[in-house]
Design a protein that fits this description.
The chain contains twelve helices and twelve strands. Helix 4 packs parallel to helix 5 and helix 6 packs antiparallel against helix 12. The longest helix is centred in the middle third of the chain and has 17 residues.
């Protein structure tokens, strides 16, 4: 289908040709065909922390790399800039759409206003946004996840692994999205062992203050919780989570990673023996699936949710000490089955 949409529209395109281009994921003609340099492939614009966060943004990049390899097309990935505005974000997305990239994905809820604006200007380009469901448009896919479900399982793992009956949660920014991680984790802990105390802390009130991009803040928060006897610390804090993992390793306690399988991350290799598991959401698959839907000529739109049932949220089993712990694995399996069946309703706040 994408081969059809690569036809160059010269002069005044007929309505039927324009319709054919649109059906096959062609680039927008709303800003005039001359502005577009032809149909390209997937483009992503990173959230704060950027590529190399070993977590959220790197997962999106993995999806882009998979699409690039499979579909053999041009891709692009752009970094955020410090102190940027919604207008800056929108211009970044508009620039990608003008160049002919399709789909164009904003990685993170902060792109909501930008995706809305860019989608209005390029109605024949498919846009995606990760972790936001507020943008309602015919050419926008809201790629969201039931993070609370994976976090519940992380809570089960923490409650089964603690020896001090104290565990910690470190959230990057005090926002509803991260509240889902906290709520699921705390519920999983308490349902497993009501005697376990959960220490919870947020690094900042806004992303601009560095809650998702400051390993030093994460390290300090984790050290404070460890001083209060926490021997398992779960971080939902993007790049800041690296500091949490570092602190856990230095103090010989467990860390629980987030978003990606952080046990396998090269940059965290020296700490991996302290990473019990990771509460993962398959951002890579969501990004790839949107690209594939465009490639197939049937662009996904509306809310596209990944959860335990679809396999797009999960716990990693890379650490052998975790994978081989029969008691912990049985407890997680039971909890997962009950969540999928609806017998356990996981809180989101």
């Amino acid at each position: 289908m994408r081969r059809i949409s690569r036809i160059t529209v010269a002069g005044a395109a007929t309505a039927s040709l324009a319709l054919a281009l649109s059906a096959c994921g062609g680039t927008s003609t709303s800003a005039s065909s001359s502005e577009s340099k032809g149909d390209k492939g997937l483009a992503i614009a990173y959230d704060v922390g950027g590529k190399g966060d070993q977590s959220f943004n790197d997962a999106a990049y993995a999806g882009l790399e998979q699409a690039k390899k499979e579909f053999q097309y041009d891709t692009a990935d752009l970094e955020p800039t410090e102190g940027e505005t919604d207008a800056d974000k929108e211009q970044r997305l508009v620039s990608l759409a003008k160049q002919g990239y399709n789909p164009v994905i904003g990685v993170g809820y902060a792109y909501a206003a930008a995706v809305k604006g860019a989608a209005e200007r390029f109605p024949d380009t498919t846009f995606g946004i990760v972790d936001d469901s507020t943008v309602q448009a015919k050419n926008v896919a809201d790629l969201v996840f039931s993070e609370e479900e994976a976090s519940y399982l992380a809570g089960v793992a923490a409650a089964k692994s603690t020896k001090t009956n104290t565990v910690g949660f470190v959230g990057g920014v005090d926002i509803p999205l991260i509240h889902k991680f906290q709520a699921g984790f705390e519920q999983g802990v308490k349902d497993t062992n009501p005697k376990v105390k959960v220490l919870s802390q947020y690094l900042t009130q806004t992303a601009e203050e560095g809650g998702f991009s400051s390993p030093d803040k994460g390290k300090s928060a984790a050290e404070g919780q460890i001083e209060k006897k926490a021997d398992v610390v779960y971080a939902a804090a993007g790049l800041s989570g690296q500091g949490v993992i570092e602190a856990a390793a230095a103090n010989k306690v467990w860390a629980i990673g987030v978003d990606s399988d952080q046990y396998k991350q090269e940059a965290l290799a020296k700490y991996k023996d302290s990473i019990l598991t990771s509460a993962m959401k398959d951002v890579a698959k969501a990004v790839y699936n949107l690209a594939k839907s465009v490639e197939d000529g049937k662009p996904a739109t509306g809310i596209v949710r990944g959860d335990l049932k679809t396999g797009q949220v999960s716990l990693s089993n890379s650490n052998p000490k975790f994978a081989d712990n029969t008691e912990v694995q049985e407890a997680i399996k039971t909890a997962k089955e009950k969540i999928v069946k609806g017998e356990i309703k996981v809180k989101t706040s």
